[in-house]
Amino acid sequence: MPFMNNLDDGQLALLAASHLQYRKLMNVATQISPKSTTGHTVCPHDCPSACALEVDITSEGRIGRVRGASSNTYTAGVICAKVARYSERIYHPGRLLTPKRRKGAKGAGDWQEISWDDALDEIANAFVKAEAVHGSEAVWPYFYAGTMGQVQRDSIERLRHAKRYSGFFGTICTNTAWTGYVMGTGALRGPDPREMAKADVVVIWGTNAVATQINVMTHAVKARKERGAKIVVVDIYDNPTMKQADLGLVLKPGTDAALACAVMHIAFRDGYADRAYMAKFADDPAGLEAHLQSKTPQWASQITGLSVEEIEAFARLVGTTKKSFFRLGYGFSRQRNGAVAMHAALSIATVLGSWQYEGGGAFHNNGEIFRLDKSELMGTAYADPDIRQLDQSQIGRVLTGDAAALRNGGPVTAMLIQNTNPINVTPEQRLVKQGFMRNDLFVAVHEQFMTETAEVADIVLPATMFLEHDDIYRAGGQNHITLGPKLVEPPETVRANLFVIEELAKRLGVSHMPGFGLTAREHVDRILSASGWPGFDALLEDKWIDAQPPFEVAHYLQGFGHADGKFRFRPDWRNGPSPDKPPENVGLMGPVDLLPLFPDQVDVIETADAEHPFRLATSPARNFLNSTFSETKTSLQKEGRPEVMICPEDAETFAIADGDVVRIGNTRGEVRLHAKIVAGARVGVLIAEGLWPNKAHLDGEGINVLTGADSPAPYGGAAFHDNKVWLRKE
Could you report the per-residue pLDDT of 600-640, keeping only the tens digit for each? Predict the structure, then answer.
C-alpha cells in the first residue's frame, strides 16, 4: 500500500504545498563529472531496442554526438542513424517553445502566445465544463509511446483515474502480437535476445530489423561471423533486412500462419519434431500432428506465394539445426489474423524443441521480466472498473459519435493528448479529422513540434525531450531497465509531461490523492523500491539493470507460464491470457468464433478481390519512427517523398513508370502517391513505407486514410498492414 494513504491531514496539507519544491527540482540537470563530458541515458522512442546511449555534453550545456553505449551488452555500441543525429531534433528551429491558444478557426494556424498559468487554467476549466454537461467520461486523456519513459508517459493515467475520466484501451501496437505469443507460452518473456549471437540459425520473422531494430542485426551478424550461422528472413517484400539474408522468404501479406503450419507438417513428416520434448512440455502434440496432416508445402505454396522448394528448404534448415533462434517481430501480426499468425510461428520452436538449447527458442518481447510496480504512479488503487474504456485505434469513430465506439455512452467533448499524433498515426483518417474539427470538442496537445494534431488543438503546450527530464525505461526487445537522467536544461518555457499532470491535478482538486506531488526522481525511486530494484542514485552509478532471468526460466525448462506448465498448441482464444486483454466492460473483440482450434491459416484478412486487386501494407521507414523524425532535415532528405512500391509486373500491366503519380483507394478513401518500381515487391502487393505527415502527400491526405479500425480477434489491435485497395495511374 502506498505510504501516502497513512498521512494525516497536516501532512497532506504540506504535501499539497510541495509543488513549489517540485517546480524548483524540475530544472536541475544531473551533474556530469568535471572530468567527463559524457552523459549516460537511453533512447526513449517507441522501439523494442531501448538503446543505452552515451551523449557528449558541451561546456555550454548542449548535446553533441550521440552514440550507443559500448558497455551495454545488448546495444553493443550500435544505434540507428536517426537517433545518432538527435541534435538535429532537440535544436530544431521549428520546435515548440511557448504555450499557444487558438485564435481563429481550427486548423487555420492563427495562434496567440499565452502564459503557462493561463493555458493550464483554460484546460482545467474546459474539463470542468465538459464534466458538468456530460459527466466525467466526456473527458478523454489520450496518450501513447512518443516517450517510453514510465513516469513521463504513464502519469496521465493517475489523473484519469482520480477524475474518473474515460478509460484508454491501447490497441495500436502490441495487442495481436502479445496475445498470440502469450496464448502459447503463458508469459511475455523468452530466451535472452543476446543468445542470437550463439545461434546456428537466426530466423528474423516479420520485422525489418535493419531499419527498425538494428541491434537484432548486430547479434545475428555476430553469429554468422563467429559461428557460420545462417540468417533467414521472412517478410512481405525485399527490404534491407531481406538483403542480409542467407535465405529470404517473401510471402503474401497475412499468410504467415500457412508457412508456419507447413514447416511443422514437414517437421512431423521428416522426423525433425522433438516428440519427447513435446510429451513433457506441450498440451496436445498428437492433436496438432493430426491437424497438420493436410497442411502440406503444396497447400502453403498456394496461399503464401512461396515455392514448395523454398518452404522445404526453410523447414529442413531449422529442423536439422537445434540452435534455431526465432526472432518474431510485430509487423506480421498487424493483420486481422495477426494473433493466430504469431501463435503459429511461435509453435515451430515447440515442435522442434528449440527452447532446450542456448541460442534456440522463440523471442518476441521481455515485458514480464522487469516487474515494475507502477500502481502508485498510475493511481490504479482508485481506478473504477465501471468507467468506460475507449479504443485508441477507433478514435475517429469515437469523435464522430459512433455509439458502439462510445460504449453507448455520451460524447467525448474534451481531450488532453500527450506523446502521440493521432491525426497522422491512427486508422480511418477521414473520420479522425472530421472528429477533431468538431466545434464542441476542446483539445489540448502537449507536444515538441506543431504536429498535425497540434494544429487543430485549442491549446498547445511545449514539451521537453528525453535529455531534459528524468525517467526510467524498460526494453521490451531486450533485458535491461535503464535510467534516463536529465542531462541538459530545457528551454526556459518548456515543461515535462509530469509537470502538466501535476498542475492540472491542483486545478482539478485531486492533487491530495496518492501519487501526486512527487518529482520524477521520487517516482523513479518509489517504482524501483516497490519492485525490489536498486534506486535512482544506484542507477546513476550503474546506468542499467540486467533483468534477464536464469536460462531455465527464460527457456521455460521449468514449465511454460500456464498453470499446468504446458505450451498451448490449442489456445483458448476466448479466455486465454494476454497482457492486452480488454477489460470486462469491453469484452471479446472481432470475429472470435472464426479463430482456429490449432495453428492454421484463417482468412479474416481483407482478401484482394476484383474491385480491390491489391493488398497494401504500410511498413515503417528507416529514417522515421512512426511520425517522429519526419520533421528533421536529414531524415526528410533521406526518405525523399511519400511513395508506393510496385513490382515491375504490375507496373507493366498498368503502364506505370517509376516516378509516375498513382492513386490507390478503397471504401475508406483514396490517396495519391508517386510510384516506385521495386523488383523485390510481390505481384499484387503494394508497400507504402513511413508515416509521412498528411500534408506531405499530394492531396494533403496520408496513407492511414486507407487503413481500417475494425478490431482484430480476440482482444483488439490495429491491422495496419491488412488493406485491400485498387490502383490507378493518374
Answer: 999 999 999 999 999 999 999 999 999 999 999 999 999 99
Q: Is the pLDDT of residue 569 over 90?
A: yes
Q: List CB contacts of 284: < 8 A, sequence separation 6 or more.
A: 569, 570
pLDDT at 404: 97
Average pLDDT over residues 558-568: 98
Put residue 130 in one of left, alpha, beta given phi > 0 → left and psi -120 to 50 → alpha.
alpha
Q: What does the alpha-carbon distance between residue 349 and residue 313 come to, in Å, rounded to a whole number? A: 17
Looking at the DSSP bridge assignments, the partners of residue 611 are none
Phi, psi of 53 (to 5 degrees): -120, 150
As a whole number of Å, the end-to-end CA separation of the chain is 64
The SS3 call for residue 652 is: helix
Q: Is 78 helix (H, G, I), strand (E, B) or coil?
A: coil
Q: Which residues pair with 350 in a beta bridge?
A: none
**With bands split at pLDDT 50, 70 and 90, how would you rate the model's confidence at 29?**
low
Check if the beta carbon of residue 522 is closer than 8 Å to that of residue 471. Answer: no
Q: How far apart are CA 289 and CA 307, in angstroms?
A: 23
Count of helix runs (H) and strand runs (E) in the chain: 25, 25
The verdict on whether omega for the bond into residue 422 sits within 30 degrees of 0, i.e. cis, is no
d(CA 315, CA 360): 15
Please, is 530 exposed, middle or buried when counting C-beta atoms within 10 Å of its C-beta (0-12, 13-18, 19+)?
middle
Q: What is the mean pLDDT of residues 367-384?
A: 97
Give SS3 for 204: strand
Q: How many residues does the chain have?
A: 730
Residue 691 zone, left/alpha/beta (φ > 0; ψ -120 to 50; rest): beta
Q: Give the single-character DSSP code of 492.
A: T
CA distance 86 to 290: 54
Interval 612-622: pLDDT, tens: 999 999 999 99
Instruction: Note whether 150 and 378 are within 8 A (CB).
Output: no
CA dihedral 628, 634, 638, 641 (to 10 degrees): 60
pLDDT at 30 (0 to 100): 55
pTM of this structure:
0.94
Strand order in the sheet with 230-235: 247-250, 230-235, 201-205, 324-328, 361-363
The answer to whether 262 and 306 have CB atoms below 8 angstroms apart is no
